């Protein structure tokens, strides 16, 4: 565990989801001096071209590019992820130990049951993390907000709460995603547009909506406070 509390904990159903949905924010936060961690809930396997060993190597390579302060895996079952009481207690214990100011979780509408369960689990664990008179690990703690990133298996036209300018960090984000060769390169169609081409087009679209080269969309169930208009683009 890191010595100091985290500013942000990105919680992902599988290794690669944090990279796909939030790597731009992770890199931007790190560039600003923030302490950032990633918790993968499952190992993401089996997949057609992957294995647990392969995914661990790919995750380590992507983590090095992102430069996060902490990363771990909660060890919950892939393809059968559920927001059980046992899983809630495990995640709440991690939150109480790491004490992140903000949590990042997947958008709550998706075709992938693991993604839906992950967000349900994060929301419940955030609540449990603040409880007193409990046998949970650590002391009570309540992150201020959950921000939801888009890493979905539905063809959605989302209306995000805000779009983050990631123009300076797009190439690093793409490099981190490329580390997951077993997921996004091996066995994928090679004719254009490839999967990676589509990711670039999506990032360019979100950048266009805010007048920048590349963007990353986010939403939140709760109101978002703004201390100054200076941060708006």
Protein model, in words:
The chain is an alpha/beta fold and 233 residues long. The protein has a single domain, classed as Rossmann fold. It is built from 7 helices and 7 strands, in the order βαβαβαβαββαααβ. It has helices at 17-31, 52-66, 85-98, 113-129, 170-178, 181-184, 195-209, and strands spanning 8-12, 36-40, 70-73, 102-106, 145-149, 162-165, 215-219. A 7-stranded mixed sheet has the order 3-2-1-4-5-7-6, with helices on both faces. Strand 4 (102-106), helix 4 (113-129) and strand 5 (145-149) form a beta-alpha-beta unit. It is globular and about 55 Å long. The mean pLDDT is 96.
In DSSP terms (H or I, runs of 4 or more residues), the helix count works out at: 7
Task: Report the helical percentage.
Answer: 25-40%
Using the CA coordinates, give the radius of gyration. Answer: 17 Å
Poorly predicted runs: none
Task: Please indicate the percent range of residues in DSSP E strands (runs of 2 or more).
Answer: 5-15%
How many structural domains can be distinguished in the coordinates? 1
General shape: globular
The gist of it:
The protein is of the alpha/beta class and 233 residues long.
Keyword list:
globular, alpha/beta, Rossmann fold, about 230 residues, about 40% helix, 7 helices, 7 strands
């Amino acid at each position: 565990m890191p010595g100091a509390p985290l500013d942000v904990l990105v919680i992902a159903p599988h290794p690669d989801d944090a990279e796909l949905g939030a790597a731009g924010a992770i890199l931007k936060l790190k560039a600003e001096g923030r302490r950032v961690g990633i918790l993968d809930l499952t190992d993401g396997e089996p997949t057609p071209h992957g294995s647990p060993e392969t995914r661990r190597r790919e995750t380590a390579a992507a983590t090095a590019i992102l430069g996060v302060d902490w990363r771990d895996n909660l060890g919950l079952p892939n393809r059968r992820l559920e927001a059980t009481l046992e899983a809630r207690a495990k995640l709440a214990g991690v939150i109480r130990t790491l004490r992140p100011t903000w949590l990042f979780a997947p958008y709550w509408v998706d075709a992938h049951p693991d993604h839906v369960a992950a967000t349900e689990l994060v929301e419940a664990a955030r609540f449990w993390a603040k409880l007193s008179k409990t046998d949970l690990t650590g002391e009570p703690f309540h992150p201020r907000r959950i921000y939801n990133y888009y890493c979905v298996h539905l063809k959605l036209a989302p209306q995000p709460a805000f779009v983050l300018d990631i123009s300076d960090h797009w190439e690093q984000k793409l490099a981190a995603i490329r580390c997951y060769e077993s997921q996004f390169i091996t066995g994928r169609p090679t004719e254009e547009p490839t999967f990676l081409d589509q990711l670039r087009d999506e990032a360019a679209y979100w950048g266009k909506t805010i007048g920048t080269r590349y963007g990353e969309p986010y939403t939140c169930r709760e109101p978002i406070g703004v201390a100054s208009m200076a941060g708006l683009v």
